[in-house]
Every structure is written in structure tokens, then in C-alpha cells.
Fold this sequence. Notes:
Layout: H1 2-16, H2 27-34, H3 36-49, H4 55-60, H5 63-70, E1 74-81, E2 91-92, E3 95-103, H6 106-117, E4 134-142, E5 145-152, E6 157-162, E7 165-170, H7 175-186, H8 210-222, H9 231-236
Antiparallel strand pairs: 1-3, 1-4, 2-3, 4-5, 5-6, 6-7
Helix pairs in contact: 1-2
Amino acid sequence: MKTNNLMKLLFAVSLLLPAEVLAQETSGVEAFKQNRDAWRRQEQETTAEKKEITQKMRDTIPANALRNITEAEQAFCYTVETPAADYKGYLLDGMAVTGFCGILSQAEIELFINEFLRKEESVSNVVAQCIIKPRIMLRFMRGVDYSDVLFSSPCYAFSMFYAGSINTFNISPASATENAIIEAYEKKKIAFVSPALLNQVLPIGVPQNDEQRALVKEKSSQAPVRNWQTEKQQETQPAVQEKKGWNKLKFN
């Protein structure tokens, strides 16, 4: 129990730090790693307490989708929302990408696995009567394969997107944990542009050098890089219709 509390505290501290050099681990994790003896004891205790992925997850989620998460080589965070009917900007699994919220540390990846894939009590078998509201998308990458996990709030759920399949789980029992994760990641949100436009191999979507920043500035002077609507356009935009597309997903 002490180990889990320590990991959660470490996770919370690391997330609340400002996003500076995105490719580096958070200073909270780095500071913890500097104490090598404590790190080794933590690692041993975590291994001893580690549980298997729950049978429900293994029965529902494709094996390769789970492997992308449990053996992730890199994981990225994006803020997302329901796209308007005339939205022409960047999409991620059908959702409008509104920002980039960082590269997950190994501690953060492990926290997600422990909280939502290994704890049976985090998932409810009750069908939730609510509409999915996208907040955060996590992309777990292993080689060139990837699995996407969408967090929804206040309709507490996470949806797994992999190779055209979608599995959605009611995680209302773990709503406090989900709220803390969403709040912390949304604080790290920064502007996102196309990685392809920036000629990036990794899907970061954030200018990393002067050449990329100059390219974004040049493209922005011609037309919005993300094709996002202006505030004035948003004010006159008709209300988004509900209960269509992935908002119709049934909870497993």
C-alpha cells in the first residue's frame, strides 16, 4: 500500500510540473531516480506486488493492443474534443485534436496499467447512461504499432482504439483517479501542429527547433496551421449534435 501511495504521489508531482523540454522525463521522476538505493527497493516492492492484467481486459481487448501498452516504448498525450460538423482540422480516432500534453514517463505508463488494467475494482459492469465526452487521448507505441486510449469525463470511461476495433469501459469507480489524471495533463496542454508538416518521425506535433518554428510561422501567415476556427466563428457555430459516431459506444 505504501508503495502504491508513493507511486501516485510521484505521478502527481511529476504531472504538475510545467512542460519545458518535452522529450525529457519530468524532474520529479529524475529526482527520485537519483536515489539509487530507494529506486531499487521501490522496484523490488513493485515487482512483488504487481498483479496480472485482469481477465476481463484480456478477454475484451485484442492481445496486440494490450501488448502495445504493457510493453510501450513511448507514450504521448493529446487533448481532444468532439469535432464540430464543419471541423477541418486534425483528427485523432475521429476526435478533434486541441493540443499536446506531453510524453509519458515510465512511471506514468505503469500507473495507467496498474490503475485501469490490473484492478478489477476500477471497472464497473453496470452500463452507464451517459454520453462520451472526450478529454484526453493517450497513444502507446511499440515499434510502429500503437494503441489509443481515450479518457472521457464526466461520463467516466476509457475507450481502447486499435486496428479499427473500439472497446469502452465504465470506470466510474475510479473517477477520482481519472479526474486527477485529466486535470494534471490538461494543465500541460500546449499548441499542436502536424508532425508531418514538421518532418518529425515521432508524433509529437510541437516545434523542436528554430527551423520548425519558422515553418509554423510561415504557414500560419498564409492560413491557420491547424485550420482551427476563430473565436468569432465558434460563437456562431450551431450546437453539435449528440449521440452519433463513437458517442453511441456501448460499455463493455
